[in-house]
């Protein structure tokens, strides 16, 4: 399968998970293309000052890999400065959030995998 960049729709969500500003997302794979293993594989952008509110994961885990920019990451209640090239992983039962702390866009890959495979 090949999906051209022009075929990947851009979605915009305001105040995602109680955060501030807008989250821009491009779904690299749709959930039904992940073989029951996960529900998100996407490219995410947060503009300066925008954030994803702190939230818990139950039944799945989420990994962020920062491609561009720097941020403050909430790792189970502890805020940590992160930057391009850093990876953050939120395990099943843990919580996290992220806030763009840079003066340019924060761009990262987000991957959500189920703890147990779901039937398609």
From TrEMBL:
<feature type="domain" description="Cupin type-2">
    <location>
        <begin position="43"/>
        <end position="110"/>
    </location>
</feature>
<dbReference type="InterPro" id="IPR014710">
    <property type="entry name" value="RmlC-like_jellyroll"/>
</dbReference>
<protein>
    <submittedName>
        <fullName>Cupin domain-containing protein</fullName>
    </submittedName>
</protein>
<dbReference type="GO" id="GO:0046872">
    <property type="term" value="F:metal ion binding"/>
</dbReference>
<keyword id="KW-0479">Metal-binding</keyword>
<dbReference type="InterPro" id="IPR011051">
    <property type="entry name" value="RmlC_Cupin_sf"/>
</dbReference>
<dbReference type="InterPro" id="IPR013096">
    <property type="entry name" value="Cupin_2"/>
</dbReference>
<dbReference type="InterPro" id="IPR051610">
    <property type="entry name" value="GPI/OXD"/>
</dbReference>
<dbReference type="Pfam" id="PF07883">
    <property type="entry name" value="Cupin_2"/>
</dbReference>
